[in-house]
């Protein structure tokens, strides 16, 4: 298995895309830490099997990140892969977006990614082909309506990924981003249902994606096959952002 011996942290792993990423990395041989504030991740880790463990994490809290990395290093002695997947979604126009909602979106979707990279990168070793994969969005690649706050955070994740790729290159750490398109998960299903006909008309492949499609892109970036790939991005969107 190509990820045998690797230790991966996946945030937001209780459901949706996150749990699919965690499950695939485990099937590829990695030991996976499901890091989430949602304790449904306990059951998710149990379903994945002995290669998965749950550690509670509030991605917006630096002290929570410190506690997570301490637990992982004490138990496994290394961190090879970080997947910053945790995120929240809200569909609203600029006029409809309140300051508190915008700030909450920023703290989870953007600050959480920054704190993850800040906390984990110093613990990674160059000879382990370390990889950080940040989950952005197709709306971090193009403009859209009624998603202003969400899009702002996802454009920021794309930019931070490229900055991190440059900053961490001397440590041998590769940093890349994955940009999912319209994919039903627990956080966006109502929004997608309301706009399904419109979305399908804009997707060249004429269908919505699945969480496992995103997981495959993450697994590639984490693998030896991507050891010369950094600062890159993969859109998993059926051509939506083409």
From TrEMBL:
<dbReference type="Pfam" id="PF13561">
    <property type="entry name" value="adh_short_C2"/>
</dbReference>
<feature type="domain" description="Ketoreductase">
    <location>
        <begin position="6"/>
        <end position="187"/>
    </location>
</feature>
<dbReference type="InterPro" id="IPR036291">
    <property type="entry name" value="NAD(P)-bd_dom_sf"/>
</dbReference>
<keyword id="KW-0560">Oxidoreductase</keyword>
<dbReference type="InterPro" id="IPR002347">
    <property type="entry name" value="SDR_fam"/>
</dbReference>
<dbReference type="InterPro" id="IPR020904">
    <property type="entry name" value="Sc_DH/Rdtase_CS"/>
</dbReference>
<dbReference type="InterPro" id="IPR057326">
    <property type="entry name" value="KR_dom"/>
</dbReference>
<protein>
    <submittedName>
        <fullName>3alpha(Or 20beta)-hydroxysteroid dehydrogenase</fullName>
    </submittedName>
</protein>
<dbReference type="GO" id="GO:0016616">
    <property type="term" value="F:oxidoreductase activity, acting on the CH-OH group of donors, NAD or NADP as acceptor"/>
</dbReference>
<comment type="similarity">
    <text>Belongs to the short-chain dehydrogenases/reductases (SDR) family.</text>
</comment>
């Amino acid at each position: 298995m190509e990820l045998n011996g690797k230790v991966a942290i996946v945030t937001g792993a209780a459901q949706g895309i996150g749990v699919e990423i965690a499950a695939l990395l485990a099937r590829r041989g990695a030991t996976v830490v499901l890091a989430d504030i949602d304790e449904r991740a306990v059951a998710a880790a149990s379903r994945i099997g002995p290669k998965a463990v749950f550690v509670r994490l509030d991605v917006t809290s630096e002290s929570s990140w410190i506690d997570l990395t301490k637990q992982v290093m004490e138990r496994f002695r290394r961190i090879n892969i970080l997947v910053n997947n945790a995120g929240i979604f809200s569909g609203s126009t600029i006029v409809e977006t309140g300051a508190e909602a915008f700030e909450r979106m920023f703290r989870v979707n953007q600050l959480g990614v920054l704190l993850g990279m800040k906390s984990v990168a110093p613990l990674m070793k160059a000879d382990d082909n370390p990889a950080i994969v940040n989950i952005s969005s197709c709306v971090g690649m193009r403009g859209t309506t009624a998603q202003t706050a969400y899009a702002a955070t996802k454009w920021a994740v794309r930019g931070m990924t490229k900055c991190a790729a440059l900053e961490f290159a001397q440590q041998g750490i590769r940093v890349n981003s994955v940009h999912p398109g319209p994919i039903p998960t627990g956080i966006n299903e109502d929004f997608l249902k309301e706009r399904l006909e419109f979305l399908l008309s804009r997707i060249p492949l004429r269908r919505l994606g699945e969480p496992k499609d995103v997981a495959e892109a993450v697994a590639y970036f984490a693998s030896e096959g991507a050891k010369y790939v950094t600062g890159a991005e993969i859109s998993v969107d059926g051509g939506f952002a083409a």
